Amino acid sequence: MSSVRAQWKRWAIVVPLSIALGLILSALHVPAAWILAAIIAAAGSAILHGEELIVDPRLTNLAKSFIAIIAALPLVRTPAGELVRYIAPGLLSAGFTVALAFAGGWLLWRGSLRRARRAGVDPHDPTVVVSPETGVLSLFAGGASVMPLLAKDLGADFRYVTLTQYLRLLSVSIIMPLVVAWAHLSGGARPSEEHTQPFTWLSAVAVVVIVLFGGRLGKLLHMPAATMLGPMLLTAIVALILGPEHSLALPNVARDFAYVSIGWMAGGGLSVAALRSFSHQLPLTLGLIAVLIGGCAGLAWVISQWMGMSYIDAFLATNPGGLETALALGSETGAVEIVAAMQIVRLITVLFLAGWLPSVLRWLQRVL
Questions:
Q1: Domain ranges in the chain?
Q2: What is the CA radius of gyration of the chain?
Q3: What global pTM score does this model have?
Q4: Residue 222 gets which letter from DSSP?
């Protein structure tokens, strides 16, 4: 009982601190402000007390459903014709980034394994050695808010995955506006019109249905990453049934709650040992993130030539993460449909592959 009371006392500090930090970081326009705020607050509590801050699994499951709805909305809003047209380049982008993630994840695993052996440390110690699953998931492009949840389901180190994913997201979110400004497109392009529909009582009922039955649908259909793809599929189905009169765009408070829950999950599990492990891998991690961003920038040129689009539109459509930033900048350049279509094709491909990740890695370990 005393440990439960101690957890509640810690939460009484973490919750208001997360809200205060989230408001400050949002006002400063920091990318992923609410997740970052929650990571800082929860990690501070975990490190200060030397004990994990436990997040109720029901809270995490609710956050999963909300994140799945958020991820599916661009798919719902993108015209079918645009999706079909950009399936091929979207698959090329997905294949390219997945290949880089597997190669980078393998390097992270082998590098940490060699370091552990030189130091005479147990090579099976997860605080020292980055597992192949952890390395690959940390470098999967797109779905930064999804990968930590999948990492927890797949037995990977979700703390390392979260920190790496949001380090990449921060880098991409800073680079994208600079590239658009450098190309002199932001000021000259006519913003596309955005029609937002109201969030009605029927929308609220639909969200409850998705939360309750989305994961079950995914498991019933034996989908990989069922807890994410199931709610995404149900979101698309419900949106088609409701029509454009009812929006499934979550209210800001629900969206921020989902992001904060992910931050608590990642930050609450941090320890001095985990942070030390991350710092040891930081140089290689930063190098791999740079390779990923540079590789996608090169791929954008190939796709721009192939599809006859401007380089900046292809760059926004293939950049490794920061979907919300990419869509916002795409609306300024008039390419929001292109960006949404290619990013969503890649996201769905990555989610399918992530569900089979353990099997693929076991096969690679046998072959290599």
A1: 57-367
A2: 20
A3: 0.71
A4: T
